[in-house]
Specification:
The protein is mainly α. 53% of the residues lie in helices and 6% in strands. Helix 1 (23-36) links the parallel strand 1 and strand 2 (41-46). Bound molecules: tryptophanyl-5'AMP.
């Protein structure tokens, strides 16, 4: 078989267009997506069906969906190499999600940390059941493409285990249908913490001012946020799992994720230096990442028709694969095929 005919293993991942993407999304997800795109057959979706598990303004959701897709490309995803698409444009995602929902034990879903966290912030009456079923939809996303590898941040690990368990359950009940995926998290940056509260994960939906660095933050603003990041009253610049040192650890981790340097080399470089020096160095490397990304992003958004063409092509390619897998699952479950 000629080299270019050898099938590459598949990758699938996605980000919710539920806000502006952060440096956490970049380091935990996008950076890894770019790193694997030559070696794997990659499918990256904008998961708008997931976004509506929390209330969204319709016009804003539509806008954020386009912006997220543009951000994938600006971050380095090459649409000629990887497939970029919008989840809701492929009905197979919703259809398989329903089948998986019927197979997902309530106990498994109620144990999900993300469900527990998000539902704890709302009154019981107002929690949409989509928030509970969300991992079954995520499982559908992954299983439709027979993805072998799923690059995500640390907070999605549990959903990946759930996906494997559910796939195994389906395969056991109906015969081998789905591929069991493996999770891939980065060595550094799998859990970027809030700059204002380094014991909480940085999130795109948190609205306090100094919490997150957004990928589209104006550069002086991003620098200011880093300079104001919460630290501690000690002096030593070292990686540490001590919760009291979470601020410094977070800054060092962001530096490590972007620079690619080893922890030892970083600690040696900052030996004897002050927190201000560390913050300046982190700001320099974060801005070095944001600047070219923002330039590409604005070019893309100004190029009429380009993004729509990418999403149209992505939808066609993804739909063909998703529909085949859905058909197989429907047959296995016993649905009467339309004639
Ligand atoms: P979402 O939209 O919350 O986050 C998108 C990606 O960014 C990662 N991430 C982070 N990584 C490091 N530090 C942080 N502070 C941080 N915040 C977010 C997330 O781990 C994720 O990789 N359910 C998913 C989206 C999804 C998906 C999928 C992912 C839907 N279907 C199929 C993979 C495969 C989510 O809500 O991610």
């Amino acid at each position: 078989m000629a080299h270019d005919q050898i099938k590459k293993p598949r990758v699938l991942s996605g980000i919710q267009p539920s806000g502006n993407l952060t440096i956490g999304n970049y380091l935990g997800a996008l950076k890894q997506w770019v790193a694997v795109q030559q070696e794997y057959d990659c499918f990256y979706c904008v998961v708008d069906l997931h976004a509506i598990t929390m209330p969204q303004d319709p016009a804003e959701l539509r806008q954020k969906t386009r912006e997220s897709a543009a951000m994938y490309i600006a971050a380095g995803i090459d649409p000629d190499v990887s497939t970029i698409f919008v989840q809701s444009q492929i009905p197979a995602h919703s259809e398989l999600a329903w089948m998986l929902t019927c197979m997902a034990p309530l106990g498994w879903l109620q144990r999900m940390t993300q469900f527990k966290d998000k539902s704890a912030k709302q009154a019981q009456e107002s929690i949409g059941t989509g928030l509970l079923n969300y991992p079954s939809l995520m499982a559908a996303d992954i299983l439709l493409y027979h993805a072998e590898l799923v690059p995500v941040g640390d907070d999605q690990r549990q959903h990946l285990e759930f996906t494997r368990d559910l796939a195994q359950r389906f395969n056991h009940l109906y015969g081998e249908t789905f591929t069991l995926p493996s999770v891939m998290t980065p060595k550094a940056g799998a859990r970027v913490m809030g700059l204002d509260n380094p014991t909480a994960k940085m999130s795109k939906s948190e609205d306090s001012d100094n919490h997150a660095i957004f990928l589209l933050d104006e550069l002086p603003r991003a620098r200011k946020k880093i300079m104001r990041a919460v630290t501690d009253s000690r002096r030593e610049i070292r990686f540490s799992s001590d919760p009291e040192r979470a601020g410094i650890n977070n800054l060092l981790t962001i530096y490590q994720a972007i620079s690619g340097d080893s922890r030892e080399a970083i600690e040696a470089a900052f030996a004897g230096k002050g927190y201000g020096d560390l913050k300046r160095a982190v700001a320099d490397c974060v801005l070095g990442t944001l600047e070219p990304l923002q330039t590409r992003y604005h070019q893309l958004m100004n190029e009429a028709g380009y993004l729509d063409a990418v999403l149209r092509g992505g939808r066609e390619k993804a739909a063909a694969i998703a529909e085949d897998t859905l058909k197989l699952a429907q047959e296995r479950v016993g649905f009467l095929a339309a004639t």
